[in-house]
Design goal:
Keywords: Hydrolase, Metal-binding, Signal. It holds the Pfam family Metallophos. This is Metallophosphoesterase. The longest helix has 18 residues, at about 5-20. It contains seven helices and 14 strands. It starts with a helix and ends with a strand. It has one domain (about 5-285): Purple Acid Phosphatase, chain A, domain 2 (4-Layer Sandwich), CATH 3.60.21. Strand 9, helix 7 (about 185-190) and strand 10 (about 195-200) form a beta-alpha-beta unit. It has a six-stranded mixed sheet with strand order 1-14-2-4-6-7. Strands 8-9-10-11-13-12 form a six-stranded mixed sheet. It has about 290 residues and is of the alpha/beta class. It is globular. Helix 3 (about 65-75) packs parallel to helix 4.
Length: about 290
Amino acid sequence: MTVTRRLFLRTLAGGSAAALVAGGAGAAQAYRFGVTRHERTLPGLRAPLRAAFLTDLHYGLFIGAGSVAAWVDATNDLRPDVVLLGGDQLDARMDDLPGPLLRELGRLRAPLGVLGVWGNHDYGSFGRYGGRHYGAPRADWAAKRAELTAAFAGAGVTILRDEGRAVRDDLWVGGTDDLWFGKPDVTAALEGAGARATLLVTHNPDLLPALPRPAGLVLCGHTHGGQVRVPLWGAPMVPSAFGQRYAMGWVQGEHATPAYVSRGLGLSGLPVRNLCEPEITFLQLSPALG
């Protein structure tokens, strides 16, 4: 039998959730987070780089400003050179600007800046599509997207939608639109990189097999690692056309491009995690030898 997202969530709601909670899932695991640390070389770098990657905040439904504040404090304690946001910052209808979220994100400190991309739940928050906590679709969703892009910029967060920036003489950060509700253009996101090291941020790892060109390192979110993982089985449900292939951790895209898929920080569907701790990803990147 194929395990669909609807079937999986219905099963949890119908009783399996209680068993998971009894085993330590639920709030205890859903709201406790950690920092995963990784050391890699990055071709094109001329000096070391400290990058913090935060993705899938899902502010709105199950996540409030208190959680975001804790994530921001932990990120600032890492003293990153650059902070990258991997999409799904929002998860609620945005009739009004998310002031508490913007205030917390405005506290992030990184000398090379804070840059991010939009994800599929952001598009629900814009009103691109409807849902139980998004309400009906909005005809003016594109205007709402533009308004929120400007609001994030006002809080010091640059949203990249098929574009990039040279944040250092030896480093280019590119970001793509969402795979499900945008038209991601990797070539446009990396145009202008030249010989610089490249970091590409794209929300959905299902883009990896279709990369039109190599990138130094790709950072993704979206999957939450499955959010609920079962011993000896893994994640019963991963929101990916490739099943477990891009569920979490280090993977590889087209052109042998290395990529990291974060388990994310927030919650989607149900406020439950099991054996899948939320994470801030901290990358200590160094110049490639030779």
